[in-house]
């Protein structure tokens, strides 16, 4: 952290107090900075330490982190689409019916019966089923995660600051 960071952002005297020092580094602590316990260094506008990129997410790499997370969200959505297509293809092959003539509820009943059969009885498409379940779960969680971080970016907040605000609001500090 350089000297320009100390003057870049003013202290708000609510969450960030002027004259504060990092307890670990014993250096003057600029506003919106935090000491990362894992990297053992003070980070300016610290958001969080990410195990997936093996480093801290901060102002300097926040957009790259969002691209990273957004790309993974897209890949899991696309993977879910492909794996569900493979599952529906296996349903068509297994039941050898023209499912386009069936009503929607019967189609979904067959699909969930097929998943149940794959997981419980070791059907030949068990790996595809488990991959589809993982991809669908991630394709729900990752866009929510990216949306949360986009909201933080738009509102000029960090994850660390949101945590601090919630602690202050609920009187836990």
Rg, Cα atoms, Å = 24 Å
The side-by-side strand order for the widest beta sheet comes to: 1-2
Intertermini distance: 27 Å
The biggest sheet, with number of strands, parallel, antiparallel or mixed sense and barrel status, is:
2 strands, antiparallel
Strand content: 5-15%
Mean pLDDT: 78
Q: Which class best fits the helix and strand makeup? A: mainly alpha
Q: How many strand units? A: 4
What's the order of the H and E elements?
Answer: HEEEEHHHH
Number of domains: 2
Separate helix tally: 5
Task: Report low-confidence residues grouped into runs of 5 or more.
Answer: 1-7
Range of helix content: 55-70%
Account of the protein in words:
The protein has 173 residues and is mostly helical. The chain has two domains: 1-49, no CATH class; 66-144, no CATH class. The chain has five helices and four strands; from the N terminus they run H-E-E-E-E-H-H-H-H. The chain has helices at residues 3-8, 62-95, 104-121, 126-155, 159-169, and strands at residues 33-36, 41-44, 48-50, 55-57. The strands form two sheets. A two-stranded antiparallel sheet has the order 1-2. A two-stranded antiparallel ribbon has the order 3-4. A hairpin with a 4-residue loop joins strand 3 and strand 4. Helix 2 (62-95) runs antiparallel to helix 4 (126-155). The longest helix has 34 residues, at 62-95. The two termini are 27 Å apart. Residues 1-7 have low confidence and may be disordered.
